[in-house]
Amino acid sequence: MPITLKKIDQYYQENYETIIEQFSKFLSFKSVSTDTAFEEELLSCANWLMQFIKERLNFNVELIPTVTGKPLILAKNHCGEDKKTLLYYGHYDVQPADPYDKWLSDPFVAEIRDGRIFARGAQDNKGQTFFVLKALEFLVQQNSLNCNIILLIEGEEECGSVGIEKALPELKTTLEAADLLLVCDTGTLSPLQGAITMGLRGICGLTVSLGGLRCDLHSGVHGGVAPNPAIELVRLLASLYDTNLRVKVPGFYDDIIAPTEEELAEAKKAPITDELYKQIAGAPPMGGEKGKDFHLRRSFLPTLEINGLSSGYQGPGMKTIIPQEAFAKLSCRTAFGQSSKKIIERLESTIKEMAPDYLELKITDVEAGGDGVRARLDSPHVQKAKQLLKQVYNGADPILIWEGASIPVVSNLCKTADTEPLMVGFGLEEDNIHAPNESFSLEQFRRGLIFTAKFVEDFASEQDNS
Predict the structure, then answer these.
(1) What's the gap between Cα 158 and its chain centre?
(2) Rounded to whole angstroms, what are the CA distances from 163 to 58, 67, 166, 169, 206?
(3) Tens-digit pLDDT profile for residues 368-410
(4) Torsions phi, psi of 20, nearest 5?
(5) Among 355, 344, 347, which residue's Cα sits nearest to residue 236?
(6) Residue 441 sits in a domain of what CATH number?
(7) Is residue 84 domain-shared with residue 177, that is, in the same domain?
(8) Model confidence over 25-59: pLDDT tens digits?
């Protein structure tokens, strides 16, 4: 007899204190992947999670070493060769908690306030991964886990996913068994509606610097004579755009697979107005190429953004110098169909061509993350998730989101496993991921657990109708 949503909710309510205790332990690990000072904490977190999965789910679990030293967790059960296989991807690493003085409580000691659990990683991605694990534990306890599960949980999503990317070729045979990739590292626009993320953009980036002066120069003695790296870098960056903010890098818009009319119509149903966007971002949606639709700019077109710009004196008052060097951090979000590797190569080539030859140009930190990914509107898994989210959210139709952000490894996971993605997340804007006072709504956690348990049960039963 199929499990009801009410029964799953009852499990959550009856085991609430245990769930929170376990979740808080998971959150206590300072598993910051971007800082080598936290390597021992990262390993401790991986070992704790491995033990949790082994003891609570009775899965076979192994820590897979990576080239970066940040271990990858691979866990599997086995229900039978004739059973469907679900691959889940998540990550146990977190962003740095800086600045600490902006937190209202210790970022690595979970605290519940106003129906939310506050800690670094509470939502991204420990919280969403943990409700998946608890949903699977519930199904194990009910003897209702009737499909094969592969858990792939990495420890460096926040710093580029290099280790898992390098490990994928050796995991290909294992991952090819998957009939679907489930990702819960996304969110929704409202606490009253669920959401399915139908697409993600790819990502790439680099650092560019101009210098070559012997040192900072006196701006009176050398002003008007010595080339100013800050001015020249600003000019270089400005030359990458035309007056409508269209990117002028040759080939930057090649190979884009445009959205269908149906996809664009669905994207426009998202309840985002200019005024709402201004409330969220603090400014109206005036960025990107002028004359292009908001949803095209946000979800379907590539971008070139300046993430950081630095040069010269930054202290109080005036210091009259010509700075020795100037730096900029650039990143691109690539559209579905594009190669992030090709785009970053084109950007690098354009910068080299346009940079002044009388200053020293350095291009470093060149990285090409994953490519964009897109789910099919007619996918039976998407349709099933829509129906189930409507039940979980008391009859409210879910939102379909073509997200502008990236989860670098998802595209390569789909290619390696030769399967399609289903991206269903329960995060909200107010969760403050990557910022001080990150939190996760316990109501959203509950909904995520209920959705996952029921979806996995239904996924397993689909084979009977295939």
Answers:
(1) 8
(2) 26, 6, 5, 11, 19
(3) 988 999 999 999 999 999 999 999 999 999 999 999 988 889 9
(4) -65, -40
(5) 355
(6) 3.40.630.10
(7) yes
(8) 999 999 999 999 999 999 999 999 999 999 999 99
